[in-house]
Amino acid sequence: MQTAVEAAQRLLLRREHSVAELRKKLCAKHYEVDEVEDALARMLKAGYLSDQRFSEHYTRHRASAGFGVLRIENELRERGVSETDIAHGLGLYEGDWVANAVHVREKKFGQAKPCNFKDMAKQNNFLQYRGFQVEEIKQVIEK
């Protein structure tokens, strides 16, 4: 049977994890709490685990998948990332949120502008669900 450190390394080889995510996964594998905390400390010290790096990677990944700031912030919070690390990850994102919203809207609804209130509301709700801010949505729907 592998140790908690080995299990943590295997999980981190596949993708970045937040500290809270990795803790949850290791505990689900029935490792003792002390062993899990020791493994996390070793991964942090070795630089294999970083909430800041996870936040940067996650932001890029989710933004490229067509999600906005608000949704990404909430998902990072759910994964146990601190507000400081969330702000850091979002701050390093070099993309254009409005351009992302335009792309997502056009992919779903086509290039034609909404022709009535019902279509406008539908597109507005879709973009809000995707996590775009009100100002961004207004710019996209009015373009």
Structure characterization notes:
The chain is 72% helix and 0% strand. It is mostly helical and 143 residues long. Helix 4 packs across helix 6 (83-91), helix 7 (97-109) crosses helix 9 and helix 8 (117-129) packs across helix 9 (134-142). The chain is elongated, with a radius of gyration of 19 Å. It starts with a helix and ends with a helix. The mean pLDDT is 95.
Number of distinct beta strands: 0
Largest sheet: none
Classify the beta-strand content into a percent band. Answer: under 5%
Order of helices and strands: HHHHHHHHH
Question: Distance between the terminal alpha carbons, to the nearest Å?
Answer: 58 Å
Which secondary-structure class do the elements indicate? Answer: mainly alpha
Low-confidence residue ranges? none
Q: Look at the structure and give the mean pLDDT.
A: 95
Count of helical stretches: 9
Give me the Rg, rounded.
Answer: 19 Å
Shape: elongated
**Proportion of residues in helical segments:** over 70%
In short:
With 143 residues, this protein is an all-alpha fold.
Question: What's the topology here?
Answer:
Elements: H1 4-14, H2 19-28, H3 33-46, H4 51-64, H5 69-78, H6 83-91, H7 97-109, H8 117-129, H9 134-142
Helix pairs in contact: 1-3, 2-3, 4-6, 5-6, 7-9, 8-9
Keywords:
9 helices, mainly alpha, single chain, 143 residues
